[in-house]
Amino acid sequence: MLAIICGIILLSFVFAVTNPRLSSVSGIFADKSLTQAKNPCIIGTSSTQDKLFPDNLVVNVKTRYAAKGDGVTDDTQAIQKAMRENVGKNKILYFPQGTYLVSDRLEWKDTNGKWQSQLWLQGQNRATTIIRLKNNAPGYNSTSNPRAVVYTASGLYIEQPNGGGKDYPAKGEGNEAFANYIEDLTIDTGNNRGAIALDYLANNIGAVRNVTLQGRGLVGLDMTRKWIGPALIKNVFVEGFDYGIRIAGEVNGITLEHINLCNQKTVGLENLGNVVAIRNLSSSNSVPAVRNTNSTSLITLLDADLRGSSHSVSAIENNSRMFARNVRSSGYRSAIMQDNKVVKGTKIREFTSNAPFTLFKSSANTSLNLPIKESPSFHDNNLSNWANVEDFGAKGKNPDGSDEWGDDTVAIQKALDSRKSTIYIPPGRYFVSDTLHVRGNVRKIFAMGATFSPGGTAFGDINNPKPFFRIEDGTATDVTIEHVSVLNLVQQAPPQAGLIGFEQATSRTLFLKDVTCCSLRPNDQKYVFRNKPGAGKLFIEDVSAEGWQFEHPQQVWARQLNPEGSSEKIFNNGGKLWVLGLKTEGGNVNTVIHTKGGGVSELFGALLYVTGNVSPNQIAFINDNSQVTLSYATISYGANDFQIHVQETRGFKRSQLTRNRLLGHGNGRAVPLYVGGQ
Q1: Is the per-residue pLDDT at 494 higher than 60?
Q2: Which of 16, 137, 541, 558 could serve as a FRET partner for 578 with CA atoms 20 to 30 Å apart?
């Protein structure tokens, strides 16, 4: 799990100053961009819903492991047994509604006591599914030696136990914490001062969604172990604790959206060195809502409602790099304190810790402020509307549990055409020799723990590429493809050089969620995504894949995108692209975003992590007669960084933003805001 850095180029007319840049204070304010919460401390049950799943898709902790969930019985041993036997296998541990009383840490260790990743804790409903730590539990009373209630971890697949300074044996640290998910539940630390509700570690793909963390402990959500991210934190409510959310490390970036913080004693959210992208933050506190410190910190904050009750502090304390937009504060001395100096005003339209970078004098000095749309949300609790591909002849495993190597194309297509709303694929390996057509009544494809492997000759011709999934017209207005992994599992076979992971050939909305695609080898794919003329809206969330080819104008919203590898990451030809949280990594890196054809691209909170040498002529971002907003940082450990960060062309004039003109960021560079285009 790498991350790439961007050397920044600056030529010609570049404005690089060290004074904070305030675009609008206390004047015109975009109220419509903010969440208007009457009481940020209260989350009603109306915002939650039950989630039900087929029995053969999840591991039910009540029916399979005899957890009681009655609020009286100690369920620690039952839950720990379930976790030990399923961690590392991409399984879903399902917690039906109830209160699960525990007295010790629920940790990501297998039956051999080895740390693993790839486990999903799924509640029925965050309002009614509660994991509660017993009051005064042994080992949870020391704030100097805190202990978590739930503790995710990294696996150890190719790295060394103490490589890079991590402590895998004792802490489960590492950069192989793939596919760790916590969703739709509450963790309550009770009366235990040394408790951490959730000590979270995830890499490349992983998310905490629809979760409440509450109690009197030290930290609600702790993300300070090596090496957190990239990961997504979404729809999370933290009430109580000294620290609501703590983030550390120089890599690999965290994306947060729809976060509600309340009644912390020290600070709502503290960033101690990472690249953090935040949208829609609500806070009700007497202490600062946000604290950003350390030379490698970069926070991008969009749309915040920060309510305080102390005029002796500012809502945001920033001593590093930051870009903020649409921030409202009340009950504080000011919205922002920059480098220990109060910035006047309680309402901020735009603020940059350092003046925006531009390459032409006629450029604006504010972001593009593209409209932001929410991702679709669909989950069918009527399980009679779910179709299992195995019922149509697909086989992910043999009866004895061994891998099955037959061609599943026809069977999976039959399931897709079965007129059901949700098509699910049980854990296993499925071999596909031709395009799968998503049409008819299909509204969701769900495949946790399943891998699709392209085979045969259909995907082998780079000059005649074919899609693995082709999304076509159908009855539903939107289609979600969730937890799908497309990967060539037969590495001895010829490369699938003509493979396109997903092709959107419909005006319907497409949502790619928790997806990995498409190869272990650079020549095993053409693109991960290609659109056709007239393609509808595209939403991307928690996806690890590179090679996004927006050949035709399209509206795209991406959250937590991890395009690692050596190919061009994103090509935007005339479309509107908005990205919150991006991390890319590698040695033979390539352009991250190429915008042309009058396209518009906004990127907030990106980390470019370079692990090898970058050609002096390589360009991180290309703006070809288009409009671009960027907020990002680079980091490099002993490798050459990008020397050209941005190249902008206007008409026949070309200018470059080079690394030597940019802000320091550890051993990389930081760009709180670049604005290009008229």
Answers
A1: yes
A2: 16
Mean pLDDT of the chain: 91
- Compare 393 and 36 and report the one with higher pLDDT: 393
Task: Give yes or no for residue 673 having a pLDDT over 80.
Answer: yes
- 86: three-class secondary structure by DSSP: helix
Q: Are 584 and 635 in contact (CB under 8 A)?
A: no
Burial of residue 55, with CB atoms counted within 10 A of its CB: 0-12 exposed, 13-18 middle, 19 or more buried:
exposed
Compute CA distances 567 → 548, 586, 589, whole Å: 10, 10, 7
DSSP state at residue 177:
-
Q: How far apart, in whole angstroms, are the C-alpha atoms of residue 13 and residue 475? A: 52
For residue 177, which of 202, 205, 156 has the smallest C-alpha distance?
202
Task: State the distance between the two ends of the chain, measured CA to CA, in whole angstroms.
Answer: 36
Query: How many other CB atoms are found less than 10 A from the CB of residue 612?
Result: 16
**Minimal CA–CA distance to 428: which of 445, 453, 409?**
453
**8 A C-beta contact, residue 255 and residue 560:** yes
CA 133, CA 130: separation in Å to the nearest integer? 10
Q: What's the whole-model pTM score?
A: 0.93
User: β-strands 98-102, 231-240: how paired?
Assistant: unpaired
Question: Tokens 């399931």 map to which residue?
Answer: 415
Q: Which helix (H) or strand (E) holds 77?
A: helix 76-86
State how far the Cα of 53 lies from the Cα of 127, in Å rounded to an integer. 18
DSSP character string of 49-65: ------GGGSEETTTTT
**Which secondary structure element, helix H or strand E, spans residue 485, and what is its range?**
strand 485-487
Peptide bond into 41 cis (omega under 30): no
Tens of pLDDT, residue by residue over 84-136, are: 999 999 999 999 999 999 999 999 999 999 999 999 999 999 999 999 999 99
Query: Residue 538 pLDDT more than 90?
Result: yes
Residue 10 in this model has a pLDDT that exceeds 70: no
Buried b (16+ CB within 10 A) or exposed e, 198-222: bbbbbbbbbbbbbbbbbbbbbbbbb
